């Protein structure tokens, strides 16, 4: 199973931006679908965005137009560019391939 390590989280003001990275322990080229999920305090983990091996992307309605998912197979890395952040985006963000990362905290202050 691939090991995934997220980074790039932090504290940002409302309207700000962050770029999350998820580095895999081996090649991700063969992983058809990779995703980002998030879990806010007291809530269930929810889907954020997905990207296929062909580069097709899908987003939750709540982040559409603000977040961009991408992957660099040569670097074994999945990204999530988050712009126009809102306090309701505050959560632990998880990378998912055929396994889960440990998560990275994103906190958006109002």
Explain the overall architecture.
There is one protein chain. With 110 residues, the chain is an all-beta fold. Helices cover 0% and strands 51% of the residues. The protein has no helices and 10 strands. The strands form 2 sheets. A 6-stranded mixed sheet has the order 2-10-9-4-5-6, with no helix packed on it. Strands 1-3-8-7 form a 4-stranded antiparallel sheet, with no helix packed on it. The protein is globular and about 40 Å long. The termini are far apart. The relative contact order is 0.33. The model has no long low-confidence stretch (mean pLDDT 96).
Measure the end-to-end span: 39 Å
DSSP helix fraction: under 10%
Structural class based on helices, strands and sheet pairing? mainly beta
Strand content: over 45%
Biggest β-sheet description: 6 strands, mixed
> How many strands?
10
């Amino acid at each position: 199973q691939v090991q995934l390590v997220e980074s790039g989280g932090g504290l940002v003001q409302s309207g700000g931006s962050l770029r999350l990275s998820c580095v895999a322990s081996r090649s991700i080229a063969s992983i058809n679908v990779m995703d980002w999920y998030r879990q806010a305090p007291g809530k269930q983990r929810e889907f954020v965005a997905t990207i296929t091996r062909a580069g097709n992307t899908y987003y939750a309605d709540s982040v559409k137009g603000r977040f961009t998912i991408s992957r660099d197979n040569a670097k074994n890395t999945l990204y999530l560019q988050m712009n126009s952040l809102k306090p309701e985006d505050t959560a632990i963000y998880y990378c998912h391939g055929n396994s889960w990362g440990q998560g990275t905290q994103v906190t958006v202050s109002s």
